[in-house]
Amino acid sequence: MALANTAWILAGSGLRVLAVDWDLESPGLYRYFHPFFSGSAIGASQGIVDILNDYFRAARAAVTAGPPRSRDWHVEYARVLRHAFSLTWDKFPANGTLDYLSAGQASSQYPPAYWEKFYQRMDTLQQFVEALRADMKRNYDYVLIDSQTGLNDTASICAEVIPDVVVACFVLSGHSIDMTAEFARAMREAERNRRHIRVLPVPMKIDSMESSRAAVGRLTARRAFAAFPNGLNEEEQERYWETAGIPYWPAAAFEENLAVFEDRREPPSLLSAYEWLASAITDGQVTALPPMDEQTRVRFRDAFTRKSPPSAAADERRRP
Questions:
Q1: Residue 150: C-alpha distances to residues 86, 156, 187, 203, 250 (Å)
Q2: What CA–CA distance (Å, rounded) separates 206 from 218?
Q3: Which residues pair with 177 in a beta bridge?
Q4: Number of domains in the chain
Q5: Does the pLDDT at position 118 exceed 60?
Q6: Are 177 and 218 in contact (CB under 8 A)?
Q7: Is the peptide bond before 112 cis (omega within 30 degrees of 0)?
Q8: In the Cβ-directed half-sphere of 238, how many Cα atoms lie within 13 Å?
Q9: pLDDT tens track for 87-110
Q10: pLDDT in tens, 225-237
Q11: Of 63, 67, 217, 310, whose CA is between 20 and 30 Å from 196?
Q12: Alpha-carbon distances of 93 from 87, 271, 293, rounded to whole Å
C-alpha cells in the first residue's frame, strides 16, 4: 500500500516509475492498481520469476552445449521493458509514467525447496541481478520494489544487491520494532563489503486514537534505531523522527484503495504521510502530489470501492 501510493505520487510529479512485485510467495501489489489494467493483463503478464527462469535456462544451456558466449551475454536477459506494462492513466505529466512488473505467471507454482536450489547459485544470480538493476536504472527515474521483510534469500536480493534506499516498515509493537531494528543493523554491518545503502525506518499504522501509546512507541523506535536513518547527522535524524510515520487507515482493512484518490492532504491524512515518504525517498525532490480534478478523483475513488455482491435471491431470479 505504501509502495503503490508513493509510486503514484512520484509518477504524478513527472517521473518515470516502475513498481515491482517481488513478493514471490504472496504477490498482491497489482490489487492497488486494478482500475488501471484488466484482470486478463495480470493473468497474461510475465514477471520476476519468468525473467529469472529464462536466464537460468539459458545459463544451463550454455554449460551443457553450444558455442562459447561473450562475458556479458546475460545482459540480454535482463531487460525489464519486455515484461513491464504501463497503467492506463493519461493524466500524468508529459514525462510521468507508472509501469508495473509482476511477480510472474509461475511465482506460485514452486515450493520452498525450489527456491533453496535457486539461491544456491547466488554467485551466478548476483551478476544477473546487477545487470537487471542497471537496466531498471537506465529506463526509470525510480524503481520501487515490494519485498518480503527479513534476511531470507528472496529479501536479501531486494535489500542487499539492488537498492540504493531500503524503506524498512514496521508497526509500533515491541516485536516489530526489535526485528526491524535488527535488520537495519545487519544492513549497516554488511555495508563494509558493498556500496552505501540508505535505510529509512518507517513506523506504520499509527493510531491517532491511541496518542499516548503511539508517543511511547515512537520513542522506543527512535532509541532502537539509533543512528538511523544512516547518512544523517543527529539534528537531521531528530527532524526525521518528528515527522516519520504512516497513520492507521481503517478502510485499508476492507479494500485495496489508493489514498491519492480517497484521502485529503490535511495532516495527519494518509496522503500527506505518503507525500512525506516520497520526499524522504527522493531527498526532497518530490514533496507533494500535484492537484487533481475533483470529478476525476471521485470517479476513480468509486472505481476502487468494492460493490456489494448480489443476494442469493437475485442470483436465483437470474437463473433460466
A1: 30, 8, 11, 16, 26
A2: 9
A3: none
A4: 1
A5: no
A6: no
A7: no
A8: 3
A9: 989 899 988 999 999 988 755 555
A10: 998 999 899 999 9
A11: 217
A12: 14, 19, 14
Cα(218)–Cα(241) distance, integer angstroms: 8
> Of how many residues is the chain composed?
320
- Residue 126: all three cell numbers together: 548476483
Give Cβ neighbours of residue 38 (< 8 Å, ≥ 6 apart).
Answer: none
Residues with Cβ within 8 Å of 282's Cβ and at least 6 positions away in sequence, in order, are: 10, 142
Q: What letter represents residue 264's amino acid?
A: R
Residue 139 inside a domain? The answer is: yes
pTM: 0.89
Asked whether the bond before 268 is cis by omega within 30 degrees of 0, the reply is yes
Task: Strands of 102-211 (E only): list them.
Answer: 142-146, 165-170, 198-203
Range of the domain at 119: 1-162
221 CA to centre of own chain:
22
Question: Which pLDDT score, from 0 to 100, does residue 244 have?
Answer: 95
Q: Collapsing DSSP states into helix, strand and coil, what is residue 59?
A: helix
**Residue 175 domain flag:** no
Tell me the helix, strand and coil percentages in the chain, rounded to 5.
55, 10, 35
Give φ, ψ of 160 to 5 degrees: -120, -35
211 within domain boundaries: no
Interval 162-192: pLDDT, tens: 889 999 999 999 999 999 999 898 887 766 5
- Residue 151's alpha-carbon distances to 128, 134, 203, 204, in angstroms, are 20, 23, 19, 20
Task: Please name the amino acid found at residue 158.
Answer: C
In-domain check, residue 309: no
Calpha distance 10→101 (Å, rounded): 17
* Cell of residue 91, nine digits: 493524466
Strand runs labelled E in the chain: 16-21, 85-86, 97-101, 142-146, 165-170, 198-203
Burial 26-51 (b: 16+ CB within 10 A, else e): ebebbebbebbbeeeebeebbbbbbb
C-alpha 181/C-alpha 225 separation (Å) is: 6
Determine the distance from the C-alpha atom of residue 209 to the mean position of all C-alpha atoms in its chain, rounded to a whole number.
Answer: 28
- Three-state DSSP at 98 gives strand
